[in-house]
Batch of 3 targets.
Target 1
Amino acid sequence: MKKSLFKFTAPALAVGLALSAHGGVSAADHKAEKAEAKENKAQVSQSFKKGSDVSHRLVPVEKKVFSANDNLVELETELVGKESLTAEELVYFQGQVDSVVGKLGAATNQLAAVTKKFDENSTEVIKVEVAIGSSIDAAQLTQQYLNSLEIVEEVPELEEPEVPTEPEPTEPDEPVIP
C-alpha cells in the first residue's frame, strides 16, 4: 500500500518542487516574463496566420484560373480542324473566349486585392501570377485563331420535296360465293 501511495504522490511532489523554485522571483519579474511570453506567442501566431492566410486567400483565385483553363481546353478542342465558321458559330465561340477573358480578369483583380494585404513577392503569389499570365496568353492565341477563320454564310439544307405517290390501283377482289 505504501508503494502505491508513493507512486501517486511522487509526481505531485516533483511538480510542487519545480513550481516552488520560482517562488523567490518578484512579482514584477513574473509579470515581465508573462508579457514577453505572450508577445512571443503572438508573433509566432501572427507569422503562422500570414502564411496560411495567403494560401487560403489564393484558393479562389486558383479555382478561377483552373476553370478558365478548362474552358479554353474545351474551346480549343471544338475549334481544332475548323477552317471556317458560320456567323452563329462565331458568336458562340467569341462568347466563350470573352467568358474566359472575364474569368481571368476577375482572378487578376482578386489577386491584386490579396497582394495589398500580403507580400506580393511570396512564391505562392508569383506562381498564381504566372498561371494567370499563361492563361491570358492562351486566350489571346485562341482569339487570334478564331479571328483567322473564314466566315461563311449558312446555307440551309434543302430537302427534296416528297413526290406524292398515289396508291396503286388494286384489282377488286373476286366476290366470294358461299
Target 2
Amino acid sequence: MKINLNRILLNFSLLVVLGCNSNQNKIQSKSLEKEEEENNEFVSNHITYSKFELLKIINPTSIDSSKAIAFIDTTYNSYEAKQIENWNLVQLNDWTDKEVLKTRSIDYFKEFENSSKWFRIRNINDEFYRYERSDGFDNRYEISDKYLLCFGVHEPTIWKFDELINVNGNLSLILNSDGVGNIASITKTEYQDVYKFTMSIKGNSHSEFIAPRSKLKMFKTIVNYTPNNRHHELFNW
C-alpha cells in the first residue's frame, strides 16, 4: 500500500490551522468575557451601593471622572442642581418649546411665568434626598394656571386641567380627559417641605415624594455617576 505523503502533510497542516483557530477563538472569547466584566463592573457595584450606609459624602471635584462611583453630594454645584435652581428646563425654540408646547399653541414664557416648580425626592430611612440618575434625570413638575408640565427620563408631557382645587395648600388638578377621571394631586405630608405627588390616569395611579424648587438646598443629593451614562440605576425606587 502506497502512502500518500502529500495528503498526510495537507491533513496535518489543516489540523494545525484548525487548532490555531480554536485557540484564537478561545482567546477572543476570554477577551470578550473580560471586556464584558469590565463594562458591567458597576452592575456588581449596584449590589454594593444598594446598601445605603456605604454611600459617603464626597466633593464632586475630587472624583475620578473616568470611573463609575456613587456618593452623596452636599455642594449643590452639579449641572442638575443648577438646572433646578435656575429652572432653565425650557429654552426658546428648543425641542420642548417647539414640539411639545408650540404644537398646542402654548407660549411657555407667558403661560408659565408665575408657575410653581417641583422636583422629585427619595425617602431613605425617613430622610429625603434628591437623586441624580446615571441616565436622564429625575422627575420635575411645573404648574401654571391651566397646565401641568412633566419632565423626566422620557420626553416632557403636558396636561391641561379643567379645574384646580386648593384646600389648605393641598392641590387637586382635574385634568382635561374627555370624560375620563384623570386627576393629579399634591398633598402635604408629616415631613417638613415634603409633599406627595399622585397622578391617576385611566385608573392607573402613581405616587412619589416631591419638594418645591425653593427648598432645593434642604436636601442632600445621591449621585449615581457613570462616565457613559448607561449603567444601572442604584435603587429600585
Target 3
Amino acid sequence: MGGDIRVEDVGGSLMRSDKHYVGIIVTFSHDMIYKQIGYDNFIRQFVTYPNRFSNSFWNHALPNKPKLDVAYCYALWDGEIRYRANIAAFEEAQAKTFRDGRTIYGGAWMLLSAPVIKAPERIEMKGFQGFRYCEELF
C-alpha cells in the first residue's frame, strides 16, 4: 500500500465524517519487547499463540478506551507498523499481574486476538504515546 498513512490523534478535534476509521495504531515499547519479555517470547505470545489457540489473547494497556468503534490494532515498534490484530474487547482501568510477575496498570485494556497478520510491506512511522485512529492499512 503506497502513499501517506491517514491517521488522527486521540485528542484530535479534526475528525471528519468522510474518514472511515477501522483501527488504531499503538506503539509497542522497545523496552517491553526486547528487555522485559524478550523478542522471541513476545512474538510467541503476540503472534503465534493467538493464531494457534482460539482462547489466547494479548492484553495491552492503553491510557484510555477509544471513543470510536474500531476493529483492528496496528502494532508499531522500531519505526515500523509490523502487525495487525483483531480487537476482541476492551476492559476497564485496572492493574493486571502477568505470569512473568510484571504488574501493569492500564487506564483501559485492549484484548487482541487472531488473526494476527504481518504487514505485507514496510510501513514506516515514528512512535508516539497513546494511540492514533486510522483507516485500513492492510
